[in-house]
Specification:
It is built from 12 helices and 9 strands. It is an alpha+beta fold and 291 residues long. β1 and β2 form a beta hairpin. The protein is globular, with a radius of gyration of 22 Å.
């Protein structure tokens, strides 16, 4: 009897140690990202989080990259916190002036010419939808500089996200005070927005409404699924992060590229990740498509 029990255990062990089919899919997706990276003129990091299971996909995901305009979302978190605390209001009128205009600030410059003021809501909208740099700098001033934003990221256990300069501050960039983040921590920020834990449920929903205005490479890759993202672009830098709302398998993602001599890695990596999660979205746990 004892011998038969030992034999049964030995025969059963391969079943107990069997890999899950989705693990094979993840390995293949990472291989596709690696092949894409090998052909890229530059470097890239990718992170994705399955918002149904919490499982993570990581390709150089813990490496710091320049954030470009994606840093505007951590700033938005602090602006929203001050609004919730009653220290700012969405409809609060903020004076704007011509000497605050910097490159890539067309919406701000138009407001200067037409009326000389914008509400906090308008500043947020053009910062996120238009990626307006003067509006961003104005909001940095309204929250009290870089430290409050970085403190908020620390409190959210996102210490890899750092705001260290205003927009279009080339002197700060030359002094290596670049705004930086890891792809995984940006994906985790998107996860918090989705789960309603970026400040609170109401604040998270309001922030996602602004991010849903962005028409970036992720939206193009994920159509017709709804998205909420923020894009970023600098010389040698392309990035985007946010949410894709697939029906059964929504996911957070972040794609960051640096040292780029040619094309952006964002469209290709986004297509690979959307394909990965669409397969999971269509299938049962064993990998059979149900539609």
């Amino acid at each position: 009897m004892e011998l038969r029990w030992i034999v049964w255990m030995v025969l059963a062990m391969p079943l107990w140690g069997q890999a899950v089919g989705s693990e094979l899919l993840t390995a293949k997706t990472l291989a596709r990202l690696a092949a894409m990276d090998a052909a890229l003129d530059g470097t890239m990091g990718v992170a994705a989080i399955d918002l149904q299971t919490g499982e993570r996909l990581c390709y150089h995901c813990d490496t710091w990259f320049p954030t470009a305009s994606t840093i505007k979302v951590p700033l938005l978190v602090e602006v929203t916190r001050l609004i919730r605390a009653g220290k700012l209001r969405y409809e609060q009128v903020v004076p704007v002036s011509r000497d605050e205009v910097v490159p890539s600030s067309a919406a701000y410059e138009k407001a200067v010419a037409e009326g000389g003021s914008l509400t906090v809501r308008q500043l947020i909208t053009i910062m996120i939808q238009n990626s307006d740099n003067a509006a961003t700098n104005k909001l940095v001033d309204l929250v009290g500089g870089f430290a409050p934003v970085n403190t908020r990221m620390d409190e959210m256990n996102l210490p890899g996200i750092r705001l260290r300069r205003k927009m279009i501050d080339l002197a700060a960039a030359r002094a290596d005070r670049e705004n930086i983040a890891t792809p995984m921590e940006m994906a985790r920020l998107a996860q918090m927005l989705y789960s309603g834990t970026a400040l609170d449920a109401v604040s998270s929903r309001e922030m996602l409404e602004f991010l849903s205005l962005v028409d970036g490479d992720i939206r193009k890759a994920a159509a017709p699924a709804a998205t909420a993202t923020k894009t970023g672009s600098l010389d040698g830098v392309k990035c985007e992060f946010g949410l894709v709302r697939l029906a059964r398998r929504p996911f957070a993602l972040a794609v960051f590229g640096a040292y780029l001599g040619g094309e952006s890695p964002v469209p290709g990596a986004a297509r690979i990740l959307v394909d990965h999660f669409r397969k999971l979205d269509r299938a049962n746990a064993a990998g059979r498509f149900l539609e």
